[in-house]
Amino acid sequence: MIIKKADIEAIAVKPNQYPEANVPEIAFAGRSNVGKSSLLNLLTNRRNLARTSGSPGKTRTINFYKINDEFRIVDLPGYGYAKISKSQSAGWGEMMEMYLEGRPNLLKVIQLVDIRHAPSAQDVQMYDYLRHFGLDGIVIATKADKVSSNERQKCINTIRKTLKLSLEDKVIPVSALKRTGYEELLDELEQLITNDFGVTE
Ligand code: GTP
Ligand code: MG
Question: Is residue 199 part of a domain?
């Protein structure tokens, strides 16, 4: 698949701000600072489509990006950001639940984890949640440029083991910095969308 067109369509904190559920959606979830927005920019070949930041907690809303007028990539707010208050993190939970459990056109949630570290307790919790709702199956190992090619497989094995992935589950290493690994992800996205007969236009 080639991404020819990408536009922000909505920035939402509650369902009445979502765009119409008329095309399939694939969402990116993961710890704050893991590289969700950077990956979106890499995929769409746009440096600043999604705002990125060295300081965690940049994306605190649900951001909908329309791709090729065909489907959406949804950038979800990151978790595990220590500096937010209890009420803010309760708001995060409610915002995520409303989207993840109530969105009829949500095909899949791709979980991002940092290739360098074993997934955190929150990563495991997130993936278990996705598994429970049948939204699991694809994990992206971000910042792949930070480990050598020798270490890479070992890191992926740790991710597989910690998230208790099955053999069918995929782990795709990607580097937004080196601009590598995203072709495999684009193929996965294409497959997901072509297999979805229900809600395409
Ligand atoms: P929140 O919006 O806070 O949830 O974070 P995010 O997951 O959207 O992360 P973001 O894309 O803003 O990236 C966070 C930091 O990681 C930025 O400083 C990026 O430049 C850096 N980063 C992202 N991807 C890569 C990568 O592949 N390699 C390296 N070395 N750094 C990366
Ligand atoms: Mg972000």
Answer: no
> How many independent structural domains does the chain possess?
1
Quote the ligand 1 centre to 37 CA distance (angstroms): 7
Q: What is the per-residue pLDDT across 23-56, written as a single tens digit (0 to 9) for each?
A: 999 999 999 999 999 999 999 988 888 887 777 6
Q: How far is ligand 1, taken at its centre, from the CA of residue 44, in Å?
A: 15
Contact 35, 142 (CB under 8 A): yes
pLDDT at 15 over 80: yes
CA-proximal residue: ligand 1, atom 32 (nearest): 143
Question: For residue 30, how far is the Cα from the chain centroid?
Answer: 6
**From atom 29 of ligand 1, which residue's Cα is the shortest distance away?**
143
Best CA proximity match to 113, nearest among 4, 28, 186:
28
Give the structural domain span for 17.
Answer: 6-192
